[in-house]
């Protein structure tokens, strides 16, 4: 007699737990899991560094298990059914990468500031309508991905972040970008495609470090973009990036910010 699908799934889960103990990494991707409650029986696993459970049907986190982790630095719960991020996650100050993309999350809690070592935050494809300004207090954040949400305002505080170099905030409802503080900004890569922009601030073109920008599917015409004050300065930065990519043999598209 063959094993039931439930029993097979449980056996596979236990096998993955035992294997993960040895390599300090758990991978439960694509297992059709509704729960990870079984992990609460494994509080002895304290030195796990990587945890991934993407493409499942999870909506809760095993709190006892996660409460015991002290060295976790990469956590991926993308493609699940979470409608909030459990507060236990924000106690994991060792986290460097956090991915809750493709869930049902509607807000970013204030406790996000506890993740002082976070370098990459991915909350794309959720139900977020406002970027909590507390995000700007993440001193080590380098990559922020908020694509495919319901965001209307691009906060000026994001521009002023100390190490933020990449923002992907495409496919939202943003109608304008800030005109100030671009001179102090560290942002080099900006994707604001599929929004409601009608123009690009001249200070962004003149003063920022942005050399890679995607403006596709906004209300910006190519001719207006070319005639915006500061375009020549931006184009110089873009050309320098293109030359660097060419000499490093990188396969990067350099059309005119998606307006070609």
Q: What does this protein structure show overall?
A:
- With 260 residues, this protein is an alpha/beta fold.
- It has helices spanning 5-23, 63-68, 156-159, 202-207, 222-226, 231-247, and strands spanning 25-27, 50-52, 74-76, 97-99, 120-122, 143-145, 166-168, 189-191, 212-214.
- The chain has a nine-stranded parallel sheet with strand order 1-2-3-4-5-6-7-8-9.
- The longest helix has 19 residues, at 5-23.
Keywords summarizing the entry:
single chain, 260 residues, Leucine-rich repeat, LRR (right-handed beta-alpha superhelix), 6 helices, disordered N terminus
What would you say about this model in short?
The chain is an alpha/beta fold and 260 residues long.
Structurally, the number of domains stands at 1
Percentage of residues in DSSP E strands: 5-15%
Q: What is the assigned CATH homologous superfamily?
A: Ribonuclease Inhibitor
Q: What percent of the residues sit in helical stretches (DSSP H or I)?
A: 10-25%
Going across the major beta sheet, what is the strand order? 1-2-3-4-5-6-7-8-9
Please outline the major beta sheet.
9 strands, parallel
Structural class: alpha/beta
Q: What is the CATH first-level class name?
A: Alpha Beta
Q: What oligomeric state best describes the polypeptide chains here?
A: single chain
CATH topology call: Leucine-rich repeat, LRR (right-handed beta-alpha superhelix)
How do the strands and helices of this protein lay out in sequence?
Blueprint: H1 5-23, E1 25-27, E2 50-52, H2 63-68, E3 74-76, E4 97-99, E5 120-122, E6 143-145, H3 156-159, E7 166-168, E8 189-191, H4 202-207, E9 212-214, H5 222-226, H6 231-247
Parallel strand pairs: 1-2, 2-3, 3-4, 4-5, 5-6, 6-7, 7-8, 8-9
